[in-house]
Every structure is written in structure tokens, then in C-alpha cells.
């Protein structure tokens, strides 16, 4: 009867292959930190958009601009106070994440670009409206991040 399993040589070959792949992927990502941050911002905007949609399902409306994204983690006490606010909030963590450049996400409801919903955005690396490249604004009005709000 033969023992089933991997030999030390087979394990070493697999580890070397994984190391080569990790180096290749790591250099691709590390060589493009601005693109990685923009992608991270798009992903976070989609997650926040989903949480805002859940808030609307529970409360028949989105939080106001004044209530802001904080309404996803703390029940608003001013303005249109939600009747069915979910205990524990709408995000996995008890705080609203900052964008990848450590700025707060912008939120307008009703939105300027989405007048029947909301605008959710990051101003990019410079934290200022407008810009190009790494300073470009990223928002839920873009095809890559736009949902149904």
C-alpha cells in the first residue's frame, strides 16, 4: 500500500510557484498605488450605496444631506427621524469608512447628478472637487459605480 500525500519536493515546488505569482501580482499592484486607491474608493462607494438602499427600504427614504452617512451607523435624532432604523446600523463596523486618501466621503440627498436619489463621492487624492488622474472625483454617477438609487 502506497502512502498518499505530497513529498517535500512537491511542496517546495508549489511554494516557489506561489512566491513567484505573489511577487508578480505584488509588483503590479505596488507599481500602481493610485489605481488601487481609485478601485478601493469605487468598491467602498458601492458598499455604502448598498447600505443606503437598505436604509431606504427600512425607512422609505434616504438620509438627508444634513443627517449624512452618519445615519448608517447612528440613528438620526434631527430632521426626518427614521421609524424603522435597524438596530446596530447598516454597516459592518460602527463607523463610516474614510476614502482611501483619508477624507470623508461626500453625500448629497437629493443629489445634483442623481436628483431622484443621492450623490455619493470621493474627491480623490487632492480632496478637492474636479481634477484629473489621481485627483479625479469618483462617484456613484460613474458607470463602474452607479447602482439603482
Describe the fold and architecture.
- The protein is mostly helical and 149 residues long.
- It has a single domain, classed as Glycoprotein, Type 4 Pilin, CATH 3.30.700.
- The chain is 34% helix and 6% strand.
- It contains two helices and three strands, in the order ααβββ.
- The chain has a three-stranded antiparallel sheet, covered by helices on one side.
- The model has no long low-confidence stretch (mean pLDDT 86).
Q: How does the SSE layout of this entry go?
A:
Blueprint: H1 8-30, H2 33-59, E1 106-108, E2 119-122, E3 138-139
Antiparallel strand pairs: 1-2, 2-3
For the termini, the CA-CA separation is 63 Å
Number of domain units: 1
Tell me the CATH superfamily. Answer: Glycoprotein, Type 4 Pilin
CATH class: Alpha Beta
Total number of strands = 3
Low-confidence stretches: none
Fraction of residues in helices?
Answer: 25-40%
- Mean pLDDT, all residues: 86
DSSP helix count?
Answer: 2
CATH architecture: 2-Layer Sandwich
Task: Produce a short descriptive summary.
This protein has helices spanning 8-30, 33-59; strands at 106-108, 119-122, 138-139. With 149 residues, it is mainly alpha-helical. The protein has one domain: 2-Layer Sandwich (Glycoprotein, Type 4 Pilin).
Amino acid at each position: 500500500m502506497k502512502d498518499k500525500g505530497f513529498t517535500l519536493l512537491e511542496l517546495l515546488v508549489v511554494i516557489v510557484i506561489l512566491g513567484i505569482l505573489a511577487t508578480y501580482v505584488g509588483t503590479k499592484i505596488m507599481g500602481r498605488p493610485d489605481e488601487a486607491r481609485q478601485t478601493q474608493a469605487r468598491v467602498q462607494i458601492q458598499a455604502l450605496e448598498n447600505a443606503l438602499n437598505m436604509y431606504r427600504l427600512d425607512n422609505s427614504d434616504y438620509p438627508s444631506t444634513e443627517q449624512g452617512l452618519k445615519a448608517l451607523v447612528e440613528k438620526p435624532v434631527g430632521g426626518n427621524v427614521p421609524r424603522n432604523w435597524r438596530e446596530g446600523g447598516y454597516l459592518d463596523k460602527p463607523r463610516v469608512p474614510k476614502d482611501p486618501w483619508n477624507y470623508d466621503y461626500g453625500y448629497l440627498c437629493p443629489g445634483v447628478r442623481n436628483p431622484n436619489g443621492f450623490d455619493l463621492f470621493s474627491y480623490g487624492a487632492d480632496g478637492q472637487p474636479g481634477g484629473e488622474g489621481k485627483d479625479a472625483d469618483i462617484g456613484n454617477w460613474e458607470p463602474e459605480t452607479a447602482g439603482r438609487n
